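Bit of a strange request maybe. I'm writing a small parser for structure token strings and I need a real example to test against, not something I typed by hand. Could someone generate the tokens for this chain?
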Amino acid sequence: MKFAALRRGVFRSLVAFTLALAPLYGMSLTETAVAAPAKGKAAKASSGKQARSGSRGGHRHAWHRHAGGKNGIASRWSRRHAPRPQADEPDDTPVQAAAAPPLRQAVPKPAPIDNGHEVVSLVASGVGSTSARIASDLASVLDSDSLRVVPIIGKGTLPDLRDLGDSGLGDLALLQSDALANLPRDEREVVAARLGYVARLYNEEVHVVAERDISDLRQLAGRSVNIGREGSSNAVTARLIFDRLGIAPNYVQVDQPTALSQLKSGDIAATVMVGGRPIKALTDFASEGRFRLLPVPYEAALQDSYLPAKLANTDYGDLIAAGESVPTIAVGILLATIDAPEGSARYNRVGRFSEALFRNFEALRDPARHPKWREVNMAARISGWTRFKPVQDWLDGRRGIAEARNAGGAAPATPADEVAPSGVESDDAQQKLYQEYREWKRQREKWRKQ
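Reply from user aminoacidic:
Good idea to test on real output. This should exercise your parser:
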């Protein structure tokens, strides 16, 4: 019994040693497991029935574990470490074909949805500004199945339109007409060549709120005056006015709510606000008799860029005495575009916007909209700016109609360019203007089809 147990132990050691050396001699585990019983064949023949029963629990157990079972299928380890056949030696080892992983196919991007809308972006200045309310009116009134106007709140300045236009985001902007005035001459000509305007919309008045003991704008020289955030349209206009009048205050640049608070605390002497009257922030401002609106003289240095205007007690009861008015100046607000050559996508979008503006102008003059809409004169011309071509073509056609009427003995019509920038046309005149535009457009489309 002891000798048989010793023999089984030696056999097991031999099998284990052979399995360990198999990779070094280029043998698979299957070959090793077959070779191991062959070496111990004589020992099994002489061991008898008892030895055979013992082998079932010994070397056969190890053979099953390493060789993969009765069917002789190689284990995962043996398949990984088995030697690869040389190129000139045929490989007669049965190989199970592994299913190839499916190729990853690129998912095509969905095609853009064409809902028939022309989306026109419109840049305006700060949230509480007049231009922001005008932009909101345009978005509400002009929205239709074929057009959507999307206001973008920015600074409302020329660099704002230029940057957004370069990025493809800004189609139109509400700009002040003095936007080109502070540029060097060479740069002004380059920028002006890229710009066009659809219409001059309304005026924004210059408001200078100061302490009650200040009665003249020139008294602000050397004193702290807020002109608005750096780069804002408010700051651009305020600097231009002070520079042209030769006044040098100490500029403070904070937002207007902060400026009104500093004005009350005495930290600043005045603040300049440019906006369409009445400015809500000033109508809500409790001056308590301590502050007033200063007059802004309409001197020759300002007359090429600004218009004379007045602020009344009905606009600001706490800042202007009853029955009195304060002279000031106003800057025109343009509906401008940039880089819109004929045939471009932006040209087509602005063209559709212009048509919708003429078609819905009466709705914009509704009392529910901003009162500045009742100052708009679509035909007014702005010096130094080029009008958007489709609109200018229509105005030229309208002028031709007027000349034809005059030749036929009709009463002479006022040319569009001679209309005062601050003029307001009647409802009948605006309706007539739109009907002439529609007729001109029909004639132009008819001519193009010929």
